[in-house]
Write a sequence for this structure.
């Protein structure tokens, strides 16, 4: 496990983008596993700059995202499809057909989970998986549980996640109750993992996840068993592991 400390969110974003950029330069047809949320927005901005100044070419890059809300269409501005398009895809030359997310409008959960596992497998496997870290240690939407989910699964969002999300929706009943997420097993198969953490509110879970016992009660703790993990965090998020 390598840990890189940056001063702040900007510094974290620069370092993370440099690692992803190196991956793209070394293997132009690489498969990137991507995340949404606040943590990667700055990283994506830097990658867009890399594309705009001619350093990065996404024309052969493939991507698979971690998760998507069930019930949200691609046009819904709260969907992760919409997020990825706004924050990265439409600003670079990645081919839309090379980008993949679970289908929020799927009606048959089992079929959608099987389909998405096949999509990930058909890429040849994830070269670099970018992750954020939830306050309870979740990765993707894999929440604390008794066991690790292997493949894509449809999860019931916890009440705290639903409550946190409700600020983004006009009506409470619009807030998604379920989401599709890549399983921990699939995440662990990625050749490299890059996890980015920022802010004092992540300090406790960073210590618990990377220096505490490995347990599905703290899903990210399993990353301690992966042989190529890089953590890039700002001072505040890494404060409790110094
Ligand atoms: C996003 C995802 C989540 C987030 C995590 C951290 O696709 O899968 O696991 O990475 O909730 O979110 P932020 O970055 O908003 O703190």
């Amino acid at each position: 496990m390598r840990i890189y400390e940056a001063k702040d969110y900007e510094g974290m974003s620069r370092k993370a983008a440099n690692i992803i950029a190196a991956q793209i330069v070394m293997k132009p047809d690489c498969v990137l596993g991507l995340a949404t949320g606040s943590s990667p927005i700055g990283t994506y901005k830097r990658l867009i700059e890399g594309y705009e100044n001619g350093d990065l070419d996404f024309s052969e890059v493939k991507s698979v995202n971690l998760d998507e809300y069930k019930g949200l269409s691609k046009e819904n501005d709260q969907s992760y499809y919409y997020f990825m398009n706004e924050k990265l895809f439409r600003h670079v030359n990645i081919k839309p057909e090379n980008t993949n997310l679970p289908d929020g409008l799927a009606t048959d959960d089992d079929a959608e989970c099987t389909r998405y596992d096949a999509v990930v497998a058909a890429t040849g496997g994830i070269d670099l998986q970018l992750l954020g870290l939830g306050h309870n240690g979740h990765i993707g939407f894999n929440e604390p549980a008794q066991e690790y989910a292997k493949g894509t699964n449809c999860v019931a969002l916890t009440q705290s996640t639903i409550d946190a999300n409700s600020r983004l929706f006009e009506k409470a009943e619009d807030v998604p109750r379920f989401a599709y997420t890549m399983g921990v097993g699939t995440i662990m198969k990625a050749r490299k993992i890059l996890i980015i953490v920022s802010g004092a509110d992540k300090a406790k879970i960073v210590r618990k996840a990377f220096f505490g016992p490995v347990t599905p009660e703290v899903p990210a703790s399993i990353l301690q068993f992966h042989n190529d993990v890089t953590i890039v965090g700002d001072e505040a998020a890494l404060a409790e592991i110094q």
